[in-house]
Design a protein that fits this description.
The complex is a heterodimer of chains A (about 260) and B (about 60). By secondary structure, chain A is an alpha/beta fold. Chain A has a single domain (about 5-45, about 55-235), classed as Aldolase class I (TIM Barrel). Chain A has helices at about 30-35, 75-90, 110-120, 135-145, 165-175, 190-195, 205-210, 215-235; strands at about 5, 10, 15-20, 40-45, 65-70, 95, 125-130, 150, 180, 200-205. In chain A, the strands form 3 sheets. A 5-stranded parallel β-sheet of chain A has the order 5-4-3-10-9. A 3-stranded parallel β-sheet of chain A has the order 6-7-8. In chain A, strands 1-2 form a two-stranded antiparallel ribbon. Chain A is globular. Chain B is mostly beta strands and about 60 residues long. Chain B contains 1 helix and 5 strands. In chain B, strand 1 and strand 2 (about 5) form a beta hairpin. In chain B, about 10% of the residues lie in helices and about 30% in strands. Classes of the chains: A alpha/beta (about 260), B mainly beta (about 60). The interface of A and B includes residues 22 and 43 of A.
């Protein structure tokens, strides 16, 4: 399996995972170990002054790349502010831009995302924008300095799979940067599907975090991602409308019967 | 001063590090923003907070 290179870093794992919605923090190191992920997302929020919670960073192994997101941002300006706060935490210069002002479907605002990408890439961030799969928007994000483009499969946390398949395929074909399918992947088979299509990686959170056994599900996703990637690199066999027999159509036992 | 959206009053002007101590917050796990300006950790001991400052104390939480 070819290595996955992003932001100048060579990764063995093509599964990125989010840290939201897990039943507790204690499970995170086990989930990370079971799937071998090397890149982990988190969010920036106000510290709760009333009841202090344990810090999530204490549960993330040091060799993982932290990919803070800008969730909560409703426009480019807010995304830039959150990204700078995240960077000041001293855990690297990666950022997943997420600009959302639609609370029903949580669909991203591509135009504001392009603006934020440009500002943050110029400041030296490694920028991974979460986006609605639109070819021109993706091109502009890459021109603005995005290290990868992260189109959604279906709305965040919906577990509905890759409903945007045709559009994501176009991005994979046309965009000269890694495509990471983010949001909506609910099953390992859907992660495998994204990888078979040629996505460079997938980002999964809800499907792992809210399963009965997140450690087992993380493992299932990592196997599916590997299987899908190997299938892509091996080039899938052609589809056809009619049957194509697997054995020669000669030498049948009934030949010569009267 | 307003800290994370909550109005707070202290008798004297306090520094950032004193505010964190009063709130029992570990300085290494948060980032402080005063009036939209991020305060470098090395300035926590000297930076005095003014009465009308707006302070944000943020940290990482789970997210996707």
């Amino acid at each position: 399996m070819k290595d996955f290179i992003i932001g100048g870093v060579n990764l063995k794992s093509r599964l990125l995972i989010g840290t939201g919605k897990f039943p507790n923090h204690d499970i995170l190191p086990k989930v990370i170990e079971s799937c071998g992920t090397q890149m982990i997302t988190m969010a920036v929020r106000r510290v709760n002054l009333d009841h202090k919670e344990e810090n999530i960073l204490d549960y993330i192994p040091n060799n993982c790349i932290l990919l803070p997101n800008t969730s909560g941002a409703r426009n480019a300006e807010e995304a830039v502010r959150i990204a700078r706060l995240a960077k000041a935490m001293g855990c690297g210069n990666w950022v997943k831009i997420e600009v959302i002002s639609d609370s029903k479907y949580l669909l991203p605002d591509n135009m504001e995302t392009i603006k934020a990408t440009e500002i943050l890439a110029k400041e030296g961030f490694i920028v991974l924008p979460y986006m609605s799969p639109d070819l021109m928007a993706a091109k502009r994000m890459v021109e603005a300095g995005a290290a990868a483009v992260m189109p959604l499969g279906s709305p965040i946390g919906s577990n509905r799979g890759i409903r945007t398949k045709e559009l994501v395929k176009i991005l994979i074909e046309e965009i000269d940067a890694p495509i990471i399918v983010d949001a909506g992947i609910g099953k390992p088979s859907e992660a495998a599907q994204a990888m078979e299509m040629g996505a460079q990686a997938v980002l999964v959170n809800t499907a792992i975090a809210t399963s009965e056994d997140p450690v087992g599900m993380a493992k299932a996703f990592s196997l599916a991602v590997k299987a899908g990637r190997i299938a892509y690199e091996s080039t899938l066999a052609k589809e056809s409308s009619f049957a194509n027999a697997s054995s020669p159509l000669t030498g049948f036992l009934h030949e010569g019967d009267k | 001063m307003i800290v994370n959206g909550i109005e707070m009053k202290f008798n004297t002007n306090i520094t950032v590090i004193e505010l964190l101590q009063k709130l029992e917050i570990d300085k290494d796990k948060v980032v402080i923003e005063i009036n939209l300006e991020i305060i470098p950790k090395e300035n926590y001991n000297d930076r005095i907070i003014n009465e009308d400052d707006k302070i944000e104390i943020v940290g990482f939480v789970g997210g996707g």
